[in-house]
Amino acid sequence: MIGSIPLQIDKITVHAINANFKRYGYQTTVFSIGTVNTLF
After folding, report:
1. What span, in angstroms and rounded, lies between the C-alpha atoms of 13 and 9?
2. CA distance linking residue 23 with residue 7, whole number of Å
3. Angstrom distance (rounded) from CA 38 to CA 27
4. Splitting the chain (40 residues) into consecutive groups of 10 residues, what average pLDDT does each group show?
5. CA spacing 20 to 30 A to 20: which of 5, 10, 30, 32?
6. In the chain, how many domains are there?
7. Predicted structure pTM score
8. Which domain holds residue 23?
9. Count of CB atoms within 10 A of residue 32's CB?
10. d(CA 26, CA 9)
């Protein structure tokens, strides 16, 4: 149960990063990844 939660977060994160990359470009993508790394 606990193990499945990060997988869902990862999928959402990937979608968010892809959207940010298309909309804002590389710098925002790096920021998003940094935020995820901080959470985990």
Report:
1. 6
2. 24
3. 17
4. 63 78 63 63
5. 5
6. 1
7. 0.33
8. 4-39
9. 19
10. 21
